[in-house]
Amino acid sequence: MTAPSEAAGPAARAASLRDAGPAEAAAVLRRLELTIRRRLDGLLQGNHLGLIPGPGSEPGESRDYHPGDDVRRMDWAVTARTTVPHVRQTIADRELETWAVVDLSPSLDFGTARCEKRDLAVAAVAAMAHLTGKGGNRFGAVVTTGETLHRFPAQAGRVHSTALLRKLVAMPRSEKGRRGDLAATLEALQRPPRRRGFAVVVSDFLGDQDWERPMRALAVRHDVLAVEVLDPVELGLPAVGLLTLVDPESGKLLEVQTGKKQLREDYAAAASEQRAEIAASLRRAGASHLQLRTDRDWLVDMVRFVVARRRGASGGALR
User: Which bin fits 160, alpha (ψ -120 to 50), beta or left (φ > 0)?
Assistant: First the structure.
């Protein structure tokens, strides 16, 4: 296997996970870890406040309310006394337990750009493990492949997170025609009940949106980040003539003539509506939303997200 060049970016390096053997996959994961460290280190300085893990649980001082602040953090006593809206800041927990809910169902075995969505999901989990794995924090995962559910206990340390990522890469792909059950996976994370922590849900969120209720229940006790992985063809069809499409989770085939402008416009409109519905469901569930694409530098998108979270926690509005 030829190693992707540095200029190709981290998404291209993730693409080599598709057909890699154990030794090659380990080498790719090491390069991915180095890339993540080089580009993400420096974002996590001090405690967790305002960063990926969210605001923490210990009450702190009050400050003026700014558009974009969580209304659940309103300090009504200070607001009534000063007649100016205030929110109560919180102190980040000293020890964090992070759980990744990873969807590796057949719909993620797809990619037309620099990598498959499955590879991007693994890369996102690797970045989250790095961002939250310092200072004795624990990291665990619940993974669904559409056929089986895998649970990896939360433990601290780089050795544990590296071993978890290797198991994630080596996980066999499900047969075509098997649909994943994200809702059941989210419910499995809540059994048994866990201390307040951080949950990262990595999926393309395609199919039925029956995951909204269990995600809302998860967000009652935990800070939840939804990482949506996308491929550009899921947003718009290229004009390449007759194209055979396959639904990996149902096995259905469909031939479409992409040379028709009206068909491409209808597809783009339907895709936009679908993504808007997913975003609305995530907002209703109380989850933060990070979108990563196989045709973009996903680390840049992640850095922008972390910076926006820091700005929001320090008083600026999220955009």
Answer: alpha
The distance of Cα 319 from the centroid of its chain, to the nearest Å, equals 18
DSSP string of 29-48, one letter each residue: HHHHHHHHHHHHTTS--SSS
Residues 93-150: tens digit of each pLDDT = 557 889 999 999 888 988 888 889 999 999 999 988 888 877 788 999 999 988 889 9
Strands 288-293 and 253-257: unpaired
Is 218 strand, coil or helix?
Answer: helix
Other CB atoms closer than 10 Å to residue 6's CB: what's the count?
Answer: 11
Burial class of 24 by CB neighbour count within 10 A (0 to 12, 13 to 18, 19+) = middle
Distance between CA atoms of 133 and 57, rounded to whole angstroms? 19
CA distance 41 to 256: 46
**Residue partners of 38: CB distance under 8 A and separation at least 6:** none
Q: How confident is the model at residue 65 (pLDDT cuts 50, 70, 90)?
A: confident
CA-nearest of 107, 160, 122, 164 to 18 is 122
Percentage helix, strand, coil for the chain under 3-state DSSP, each rounded to 5: 40, 20, 40
Give residues with Cβ within 8 angstroms of 163, minimum separation 6: none
Q: Is the pLDDT assigned to residue 257 strictly greater than 50?
A: yes
Strand partners, 87: 63, 74
Whole-angstrom distance, CA of residue 128 vs CA of residue 302: 10
**Helix (H), strand (E) at residue 10:** helix 10-15
> Can you give the three-state secondary structure of 68-123, one letter per residue?
CCCHHHECHHHHHHHCCCEEEEEECCCCCEEEEEEECCHHHCCCCCCCCHHHHHHH
pTM: 0.76
Distance CA 92, CA 60 (A): 9
